[in-house]
Amino acid sequence: SNVTHNDVTHNNATNNLKPSLICLASIAGTLDYPYASLYAKSKRAMIATASAYRLALDPYNIQVTCIASGYIDTQALRDLNDGDASHKPFIMSTQTAVTNIMKAIDDDVELAVFPKSMRYITRTLNHLPKPVLNWILRSKLDKPA
Fold this sequence. Notes:
6 helices; Rossmann fold; globular; 11% strand; disordered N terminus; 3 strands; mainly alpha
């Protein structure tokens, strides 16, 4: 047989398929601080909404997974960065992102935050006292007028 390991894994997974709702957020939405950008606040709202949907749809056997990834090396991201996004911290290829997303769906993860390095950084930042976190992030994000 010419069946690869991936085909076998996929075939096994499809035997247990149930309807799914996949919400796309961002790792930016995992940071909780008052001076977050509109983008980060909207991604935080998506994470909360996905969690509410997961609870509400569970009795109907509908899976809800929220994806909160870091930077993915897409054409859109490159376009926003003068054609090159390689300076973005912990940037990942689209294939790596797809692999992480598919694993999160297969494993029925509620909130998939990746890459791991950024997940650890955001978790650590969220444990800082709010005034310290605000000072760190404002000093990095504020631009002179």
